[in-house]
Amino acid sequence: MSSHYIGAWRIDVERRDGVARLVPATALARVAAAALDAAGATSPASLGLILSNDAELAELNAEHMGKTGPTDVLSFPMLPPELYPDHAGKDAGGAAGAARAMGAFALPAEAFALPPGQRQHLGDIIVSVERAVDQASAGRGGQTGDVAWDARSELRLLVTHGVLHVCGWDHAEAVEEAAMRALEQRLLG
Prior knowledge:
By secondary structure, the chain is α/β, with parallel strands linked by helices. It has 6 helices and 5 strands, in the order ββαβαβαβααα. The chain has helices at about 25-40, 55-65, 95-100, 130-135, 150-165, 175-189, and strands spanning about 1-5, 10-15, 45-50, 75, 120-130. Strand 1 (about 1-5) and strand 2 (about 10-15) form a beta hairpin. The chain is globular. The two termini are about 30 Å apart.
């Protein structure tokens, strides 16, 4: 694992054994930091970014989302969406609402006092680099799932997308999706 300090952020990047090195960890940490800045995340803070494969994402997708098969990115936020600034892409009760209903986020963030000098951990993102390569090469990449582009661009998009989910962004509703896609385009532009 490598830790990257960018502005107010510490991005901890872990690359699982055997996972392709498409983009340097430092560059991915910069992508994550830009998304945290744009999302108005509380700072200083830390974020975990795990680069993995389809097998691990399939296990996590089944365990946490109840879905069969691999997915490209999963986000595990530590804070409720209410603690992030309001925006058009804010989760209106979708995944975060379900998590709250199951008891997650039961205590407000202010209930957790951190020792002086410690960073709030915002959450973790796990990306299947294998899925990023497959989606990009098969022309199923990009925000619309119909873009044939470089796998490195797909990986950057997935990291950005995962960070925004950690920060309370969603795309379950049309207005949320439009706002999230616009921010992703601006960040990756």
